[in-house]
Amino acid sequence: METPLQTETSQPKPITSVRPFWYKLKQNQMTWVGLGILGVIVLCSLIAPILTPYNPTQVDISSKFLAPSLHHWFGTDEVGRDILTRILYGARISLGVGITVIIMASVIGILIGTISGYFGGVIDVTIMRIMDMVMAFPTLILAMALAAALGPSLQNAMLAIAIVKIPVYVRLARGESLVLREKLFVKSAQSFGINPWRIIGKHIVPNSVSPVIIQATLDVGDAILMIATLGFLGLGAQPPTPEWGAMISIGWKYLLDYWWYPTFPGLLLFLSAGSLNLIGDGIRDILDPKAGR
């Protein structure tokens, strides 16, 4: 008969060990491409005050719509602000908001999902019907509706996107919980009378993390695009905040005459989302055994 100590230690390791993970990561060249692109963008955003002497919100009408040059590498906008400076400072907002939103959604989703899957019954049915109601609407449309109802601001846009992303993580965590609660190490813990909340926190949640991590890495790029979309529609960051979507929202009107205005923010948005998708694909290939087959 197993002792409580044996029961605690007999559970499988929740996440792939570091050495095999690092070995597989080194073999995936596209993941390194994504890491390289994202690393350059993040580094440049962090040292933006060193790279550019301009203020991202300072108006200089005498310098409006200047073409790209040695003084303004990406040109200037309709009120003379340096576009490169605004892009670099905007990277802090776009990347930071995207990562924060996904962390919020994944943490809340895994907690709700594990509770739903472990307890089952009325709790499970109630939670999953609510999640089905949220998922019945297109993600972007629902995020737009929530952001409009809450009011146009960056914080409300973050909350709206987090809400529409939560059901995905709830379903993932619930699916893992339904399998894990039938495992021997969970049954053994239950037979020893261990508190259900301790079982969830010590056994169910750690072993449900891998698919959530995979989904989260793939969703960060999507969250950045959604933040930019809400900003483009005027439901996200408000002027003069240097956010990529808000910059494109104004700049597209001048595309034919001043092509650099919307082009460079759009290019950085494309590179950021693309690099995050490459990283997510690489992590999925490493952590998902089915992908390995």
Name the shape in a single word. elongated
The CATH superfamily bears the name MetI-like
Helicity, in percent?
A: over 70%
**Count of separate DSSP helical elements:** 14
The share of residues in extended strands comes to under 5%
Low-confidence stretches: 1-10, 12-16
Radius of gyration, CA atoms, in whole angstroms: 23 Å
Largest sheet: none
Structural class: mainly alpha
Note the gap between the termini: 37 Å
- Write down the overall mean pLDDT: 86
Q: Strand-and-helix sequence, N→C? A: HHHHHHHHHHHHHH
CATH architecture: Orthogonal Bundle
Q: Using the coordinates above, name the CATH class.
A: Mainly Alpha
Domains (count): 1
Number of strands: 0
Give the CATH topology.
MetI-like fold
In words, what does this structure look like?
- With 293 residues, this protein is mainly alpha-helical.
- It has a single domain, classed as MetI-like fold.
- It is built from 14 helices and no strands.
- It has helices at residues 4-9, 18-27, 29-46, 48-51, 83-119, 121-135, 139-150, 154-180, 184-191, 196-207, 209-232, 244-251, 260-287, 289-292.
- The radius of gyration is 23 Å and the shape is elongated.
- It holds the Pfam family OppC_N.
Task: Give a quick summary of the entry.
The chain has 293 residues and is mainly α. The chain contains 14 helices and no strands. The chain has one domain: MetI-like fold, CATH 1.10.3720.
Which terms would index this structure?
293 residues; mainly alpha; MetI-like fold; 14 helices; 73% helix; 0% strand; elongated; membrane; transport; cell membrane; MetI-like_sf; transmembrane helix
